[in-house]
């Protein structure tokens, strides 16, 4: 009788253990499934509009996550930073500079939920025109062309909000004129400098011929396969380096997995093919 009771108890314990294991496994699977179906929200600098969608599709394919919902909001880095500070529910912030992610990291440190910024790309600045030929221009002759075209309109992205605009401003400030002022100051004084909200809008102004010249991202030029006469890629040393940092702004495990892919060799190939410089 005692042996029978013992056997029954052992069998019951084994059955209970199996049920518990199955329950834990089902719970883990459910959690994984929930994470994969939960929307991943990315706040991305406007210059990424031509490359990030391809990276997202590559990530979903390579990781076999066809049902992963990923939403991207493109805007100037400064505008996105302000939205995040105001509580916008983004999971990842991909800025066009290093300053805004660094500020978010400092803010996160105060709340003990800090993530470290990471560099994911280095942008290139280009001068673009659909109305003026830039086929044989060099750094010096670009400066001369911009200086001598008295009636030309030139657009840059807002330097206060867009890192590409800040670099374009520095480039124009480095060009001296005969009088003691920079080309940037002269353009502003003559009201020939058209300020766009972000690099995407600056590109549209130049692409549609609304202005004569536009300082845009090389990636935008690459995306449309512009003719050589329509653009010149500025020498990287002629303007402040456009190092683009990102930061995870939520505790989503999917966000961390996507960032790993973004920074992997596979992810970096997308950037190189799109006209960005190697960050390695």
Automatic annotation (TrEMBL):
<dbReference type="Pfam" id="PF13531">
    <property type="entry name" value="SBP_bac_11"/>
</dbReference>
<keyword id="KW-0732">Signal</keyword>
<dbReference type="InterPro" id="IPR005950">
    <property type="entry name" value="ModA"/>
</dbReference>
<keyword id="KW-0479">Metal-binding</keyword>
<comment type="similarity">
    <text>Belongs to the bacterial solute-binding protein ModA family.</text>
</comment>
<dbReference type="InterPro" id="IPR050682">
    <property type="entry name" value="ModA/WtpA"/>
</dbReference>
<protein>
    <submittedName>
        <fullName>Molybdate ABC transporter substrate-binding protein</fullName>
    </submittedName>
</protein>
<feature type="signal peptide">
    <location>
        <begin position="1"/>
        <end position="17"/>
    </location>
</feature>
